[in-house]
Amino acid sequence: MEELRTEPRTDLDDRTDISLPPDAALPLIDSDTDEVGVLPQRSFVRSARTFLRDYFLGEEPTVGAALVPFCFLSILLFTRHPLKTNFIFDEQEAILANPYVRSIAEANSKLHWLDAFRRDFWGLPSDRSIGSYRPIPDLIWRALWGLGARDQTPFLHHWVNVVLHALNGALLTVIVSKVTKDRALGWLSGLVFVGCAVLTEAVSGVVGIADVLGALGVLLAVAALALPMYWMVPAVFLATLFGLFSKESALCAVPLVPIAALFLSRYVHPVSPRAGLRTVLAGLATAVAFVLYVESRRRLFPAPLAPEISAAANAHKPFLQRTFAALLRWYAQPILPRDPLNNPLIEATPPYRIAAGLRIYADGLSQIVFPRTLSGDYSAPQEPIPPTLVFPASVAGALGMVAPVLAAPVMGIVAWRRARKWRTETGYLDSPHIAMVMGQKSGLLALLGVAMVWVVVSYFPVSNIPILLPTVRAERFWYFPALGTSIAVAAVFITVGRKLRRTRLAWATTAVLLVFLGFQAYAARMHANDYTDDLVFWDATRHAVPRSAKAHLNYSVMQGARGRLEERRSANAVALDLAPTWPMANVYLGDTLCRMHRADEAWPYYKRGFELSPNDQNLIALAIQCLWDEKKLQSESSLVRNELEDLATKHPGTWVAYLARDTIDNGEGHEGVDPQYRPRGYNQGPKEE
């Protein structure tokens, strides 16, 4: 048998070498020995390693090449159960109750394809909108409904998210590799992003398609910066417009794309960067796309504006506040829901709202690195108003929001000076090798500057700091910022790994990276399992965020839909303990008792819910119908009927007054509440408009 032999390395630059140990370090087996089965096995191992090295590092990655492995990874981590899954949480309103989506299956539909631009995310007209305007997701859902993906399962709808998520990872890989000329860094950035566990809600949840498509638009706009200038401008414009019509959060492209052009042009166009001109043209393209989007929405979807941004309401305020209100009036954001249960910061003064927003931002950053807890809901009182302004989490959030913005221009200037010095000293500006070294020496620093700004700028609009959102916190808000954090995380591992590669700690970086990726994958897969069905989802949510009243109440509803009334009552009681002034928790607990044929016990909870919200038609109709079914309203001597009539007198002109009197007077003919006023049942389609 021959002695061990080693072959010389062929790496031109060990900074880009992340190869496995050389093949020749394996023993070469003499064919004359009895170990005839070993040589083919070693040859197979060498062939597999060579194939993987060539595939991932042999050539500059392309979108097609990166899409294949990332599709498999995305499918592995985020796919819901193909047979058991059903429509969960917002998916019921977004698809099952969406009149625009479902209308494609109607023989004489009044709604047509382009009506997506006249309807909101939930398929509602502007005068009934709750604020979200996202036509492109509705177009996709309508097409899927027309193809037969209907109310049996959301599996195909969800698979669109899974594949698009892989596409975004592939685009990120190509962008990073193009800028830094570092294939390993490009692949690792895409891998970290695709496997990022905090993105599970956006990828596994059907309504997350808005975030995935919006980010796709922004990534395409950044990728377009590598095109010749005459193609760059229209490509940036169209990509930005696509992102905006997918989700409002894509407005972050307006500042981010010009910043990326300024920082990165000299690395994607090393011969003739013309960074200033590209920055101006990219800025104009994104700005024109934004103006066109806003003006189109204002005309096609003329929703009423919030009173607090009117000119009269801001006439006596300081100049900056008047200007901000004027911008909001031009932007014409539809009125957003204001429910303290979904967002308790509605009741906070601005300083305390900012402190809470910074705390939530810091928590989100920690989830990016260590996603120990993931949840589909963070309703009150899970995320309360903080008692003080300054505390560790608010300070950490402030540092995490301010420091990147301050550091990014410094990094950009240092990278520019390094690149300029290198170009001056070398003399050959058109050499591919010069471009590669420039990218590795200073391109990474410039890209990190863009990534740091990316995180802050893309998260700030959804932070509840500039404006109040309907939701206090959601993990899908991190889909845009995670593009920036993925670059930063990958850069840390690559840089440290190369610094330590010839030391005794060389193994440590690889070990930490594998643990990091492994834990991300585990957390993503476990959270994706929470989307098996609606009962599993809310059961997991109430354990992940035990102080969310909505999580416990929705879990009780899922139990009730399966006929388990005692489990429904128990979970509903927990929700009421957490939110005693929540009308729905009171009425639903009463409804549970009523359905258990304990109507006398139910009435105090019904009554409390009516007093808290005398104009909630659905809740009141639900309660009165059950009271009618339990024969509590038919007799004039009934205590429940008499107290209900007293409530009607106490709240004239409200739904409780109207439905109480109408049901008592006409209940025999309607068999209770007039059917046109009854709420839509669980997991049902839309009521007729």
TrEMBL record:
<dbReference type="InterPro" id="IPR019734">
    <property type="entry name" value="TPR_rpt"/>
</dbReference>
<feature type="transmembrane region" description="Helical">
    <location>
        <begin position="444"/>
        <end position="462"/>
    </location>
</feature>
<feature type="region of interest" description="Disordered">
    <location>
        <begin position="666"/>
        <end position="689"/>
    </location>
</feature>
<feature type="repeat" description="TPR">
    <location>
        <begin position="583"/>
        <end position="616"/>
    </location>
</feature>
<keyword id="KW-0677">Repeat</keyword>
<feature type="transmembrane region" description="Helical">
    <location>
        <begin position="275"/>
        <end position="294"/>
    </location>
</feature>
<protein>
    <submittedName>
        <fullName>Tetratricopeptide repeat protein</fullName>
    </submittedName>
</protein>
<keyword id="KW-1133">Transmembrane helix</keyword>
<dbReference type="InterPro" id="IPR052346">
    <property type="entry name" value="O-mannosyl-transferase_TMTC"/>
</dbReference>
<keyword id="KW-0802">TPR repeat</keyword>
<feature type="transmembrane region" description="Helical">
    <location>
        <begin position="505"/>
        <end position="523"/>
    </location>
</feature>
<dbReference type="InterPro" id="IPR011990">
    <property type="entry name" value="TPR-like_helical_dom_sf"/>
</dbReference>
<keyword id="KW-0812">Transmembrane</keyword>
<feature type="transmembrane region" description="Helical">
    <location>
        <begin position="477"/>
        <end position="496"/>
    </location>
</feature>
<keyword id="KW-0472">Membrane</keyword>
<feature type="transmembrane region" description="Helical">
    <location>
        <begin position="62"/>
        <end position="79"/>
    </location>
</feature>
<feature type="transmembrane region" description="Helical">
    <location>
        <begin position="216"/>
        <end position="238"/>
    </location>
</feature>
<feature type="transmembrane region" description="Helical">
    <location>
        <begin position="390"/>
        <end position="416"/>
    </location>
</feature>
<feature type="transmembrane region" description="Helical">
    <location>
        <begin position="185"/>
        <end position="210"/>
    </location>
</feature>
